[in-house]
Design goal:
The complex is a heterodimer of chains A (about 220) and B (about 550). With about 220 residues, chain A is mainly alpha-helical. Chain A is built from 6 helices and 2 strands. Chain B has about 550 residues and is an all-alpha fold. Classes of the chains: A mainly alpha (about 220), B mainly alpha (about 550).
């Protein structure tokens, strides 16, 4: 992957120009996000179909979720999208690398806070209360099979989303290291921009999950 | 792999350093980012998978020589056809042309130094190998008996075989398809040489683009479906199991939402290859370039709205069946456009019958039979009679083997001089092509008759009156097997002993023929500037036939 002569850092040999490389990277991420939509789409479709088949059970299932934690997490994620956008903006306008790192770390803290709230106040509580199908399921006879199915979908969907958050945190870590090593400038910040697309996408998935799982019949 | 490169080193490469002799040793192959080497890595791996799937098929055909079964217990037979289906579909046909010829040719054809994301390309191969290794392990350590379709609740609650491991293998290999498709889409959009406009692209590129669209749009859905199936099996929770309110039909909908488009993943690249072969060996511009190009895209689009024709008799509503039946008929239109345009290209061309052309002509005939019998199955009434019989088996093998594998072999033969820098013995290649054609028809035509007479697929035994046709089919399979072994032998032989090919042994058009064989690692010394359409064959001899379709007016 030796760069040709006077090209800027991060320039790969298969490209002719820096602009071409940046466009390719951006298009690549957009195509990837399309595949992600289809990936989550299979689950969303199944959820919607089963919700219409077992409406009462799903409402009962929703009632097991606590809206205030979901709402807090929604706010945390939206705020993290803002800090991510600011990190990119800071690089674009050629600010110091300290400022870029500040926004990136803040984004990471918010992402980690989301996962922490999810684990401590939601999944852990579900575990104690016996609401996790296949792992800890305390069925006092009050739950129809449909409730169990709702909880399955709740864990699959939020679990898959949390997995994407963890991957996002890994990407942010790499970005912090790259920034610290002076890889970015106002001329070259494509990795920040492309990772930002991913981060926003994961947020948007949550924006769909939150009303579907919590707001329709949740516990306030 | 390393021995192959070492052998080539002895040969006088025509321009010195090329992608094969640029570096040596197993590491230089396993850590390569060169799209051409990655193409060869795929070629070697899917050949192994083809052999495994082929052996399973061979054992099935031997078993079916006798009505009561000659070899196995019925349970073993179930594992045999499942192995054959899973390996051939997910680990041979889906990656076959895209991952080998696609990887090798796309940058060469569009005038680029590599694909857009070379590291991602190598990662895709490792992902594929991981999935394939899991599938092979599951096969060898007890097998799987669900068929390649994994229908629940049998697959999720009743089967005691390695369903989870195989599903995981298919799940993982799916990401290799997704990333390959992503890489190709970006490459075709962003890496074209100056002057290489969309309508100057070779039709193989259009076909690969359409295939890549299906890769990125369809594969994630099968991935999530198998993920849900796996969770249902491991955690014993209900998603598709009717006992706890799940709906097995939902699995079938999601499965076929991918797996029907996957059929076009297998055939579209073959159509692209055939477009190249027909023009090269007719020495004529393709008839109706834009029609052929857009028919690839429309097949990709229509493929996503016809999946319900797999479910006419599984309990979907009759109205859904009607709609899916009508939509399925639509696929015939772009498919027929292609067949007519290839035929019109042949008309008054200067046709020569080298081995790749024999495969291409065989493809047109067999694909036409396979496509037309597909219409029988798209009709609700006839499908009720034919569903679940050998008629279906024969139909999709005419498309998958008569179509996709013929095109794959034709493509390998056509570009082999570019890949290896050597020529293979043409006479042997023509003989092998004829053997494949004869063996194929003898194997699968009797299966149309068996299916029409009502012999169900996936059974280890059958009534005695079906024996003659079954023996014919098994005899054909052994001929077909020989037809596949011969090219394997002479292609490997040619890597060391074949005559040096030169840059353009077929005198064909296209950027890949303008550079040395084998190409240098960077493909082009200078990125070319494209000034002419694809298939711009000289019109001198065509002047004799000024009214022939496709002849350029001067």
């Amino acid at each position: 992957m030796a760069a040709h002569g006077a090209h800027p850092p991060g320039f790969a040999h298969q490209f002719e120009t820096v602009a071409q490389q940046r466009e390719a990277g951006t298009l690549g991420m957009w195509v990837f996000l399309v595949t992600e939509i289809l990936f989550f789409g299979g689950m969303f479709t199944s959820y919607i179909i089963y919700r219409s088949l077992h409406l009462q059970s799903f409402i009962q299932g929703s009632h097991e979720l606590i809206v205030r934690f979901g709402a807090t997490n929604t706010a945390v994620l939206i705020f993290s999208s803002l800090t991510m956008a600011l990190a990119i903006r800071t690089a674009q306008t050629g600010k110091s690398k300290g400022q870029i790192i500040f926004w990136l770390i803040l984004t990471m803290i918010l992402g980690a806070a989301f996962i922490a709230i999810k684990l401590r106040f939601e999944w852990y509580r579900d575990y104690v209360e016996g609401l996790i199908p296949g792992v800890s399921w305390l069925d006092g006879g009050t739950h129809t099979p449909g409730v169990k199915m709702f909880m399955c979908f709740y864990f699959f969907m939020t679990g898959l989303h949390a997995l994407h958050m963890v991957v996002g945190l890994g990407i942010l870590t790499v970005l912090v290291i790259m920034t610290a090593r002076n890889k970015f400038s106002s001329q070259y910040y494509a990795p920040l921009e492309i990772s930002g697309l991913y981060w926003h996408f994961v947020d948007i998935v949550w924006i769909f999950l939150f009303p579907l799982l919590y707001l329709i019949g949740g516990r306030y | 792999m390393s021995t192959a490169t070492a052998d080539l080193h002895d040969a006088p490469a025509e321009s010195g350093v090329n992608y094969l002799n640029a570096s040596y040793g197993i590491r230089s192959w396993l850590l390569t980012f060169d799209h051409k080497r990655i193409g060869l890595l795929y070629l070697a791996s899917i050949t192994i998978m083809f052999v495994v799937g082929g052996v399973a098929a061979m054992l099935m055909r031997i078993h079916l020589i006798e009505p009561q079964g000659a070899l196995f217990e019925p349970e073993t037979y179930n594992k045999m056809f499942s192995t054959h289906g899973i390996i051939m579909v997910f680990f041979f046909l889906v990656p076959s042309i895209p991952a080998t010829l696609g990887n090798f040719l796309i940058p060469l054809m569009i005038g680029a130094r590599d694909v857009a994301f070379p590291k991602l390309n190598l990662m895709s191969w490792y992902i594929f190998i991981t999935g394939a290794a899991l599938a092979l392990y599951a096969t060898l350590s007890g097998g799987v008996d669900t068929g390649w379709t994994f229908y629940p609740p049998y697959s999720s609650h009743y089967s005691a075989t390695n369903v989870t491991i195989v599903a995981l293998g298919v799940f993982i290999a799916g990401f290799s398809s997704i990333l390959t498709g992503l890489n190709f889409i970006v490459t075709i959009h962003k890496m074209r040489a100056p002057g290489m406009t969309w309508f100057r692209l070779p039709l193989f590129i259009w076909a690969m683009y359409a295939t890549s669209l299906i890769f990125v749009l369809g594969t994630p859905v099968i991935a999530i479906t198998l993920f849900l199936l796996g969770l249902e099996r491991i955690l014993h929770v209900g998603i598709f199991d009717p006992a706890v309110g799940g709906d097995p039909l939902l699995f079938q909908h999601l499965f076929w939402f991918y797996s029907h488009p996957a059929v076009y993943i297998m055939i579209l690249p073959g159509m692209g290859v055939v477009s190249e072969l027909i023009t090269a060996f007719s020495r004529k511009k393709i008839f109706g370039y834009s029609f052929v190009a857009f028919s690839s895209l429309s097949i990709a689009v229509i493929s996503f709205i016809v999946w319900g024709h797999h479910m006419f008799v599984t309990g979907q509503s009759i109205y859904a069946g009607l709609v899916f039946s009508v939509l399925s008929f639509l696929v015939a239109i772009p498919s027929a456009v292609k067949v007519f345009n290839w035929t019109a290209t042949l008309y008054r061309g200067s046709i020569s019958y080298e081995a790749p052309m024999l495969y291409a002509l065989g493809f047109i005939g067999l694909f036409t039979i396979g496509g037309l019998t597909g219409l029988f199955l798209a009709s609700l009434a006839t499908d009720v009679h034919l569903n679940g019989t050998y008629f279906i088996v024969a139909h999709f093998h005419y498309i998958m083997v008569g179509g996709a594998v013929m095109a794959y072999l034709g493509g390998i033969h056509y570009w082999w001089p570019k890949i290896s820098g050597r020529l293979y013995p043409d006479m042997w290649a023509r003989i092998a092509a004829a053997i494949v054609f004869i063996g194929f028809n003898l194997t699968f035509f009797p299966q149309f008759m068996l299916g029409y007479l009502g012999m169900p697929r996936r059974y280890a035994v059958y009534p005695a009156e079906f024996q003659v046709l079954n023996v014919m089919s098994s005899a054909g399979a052994s001929i077909l097997g020989i037809g596949y072994v011969i090219p394997l032998v002479y292609l490997i032989w040619s890597m060391r002993y074949g005559p040096v090919a030169g840059p353009n042994p077929w005198k064909a058009k296209g950027l890949e023929w303008t550079i040395p064989s084998p190409p240098p690692t960077e493909n082009f010394e200078e990125i070319p500037i494209v000034t002419e359409d694809a298939y711009n064959y000289p019109v001198a001899e065509a002047h004799k036939y000024p009214d022939a379709p496709g002849v350029a007016r001067v």
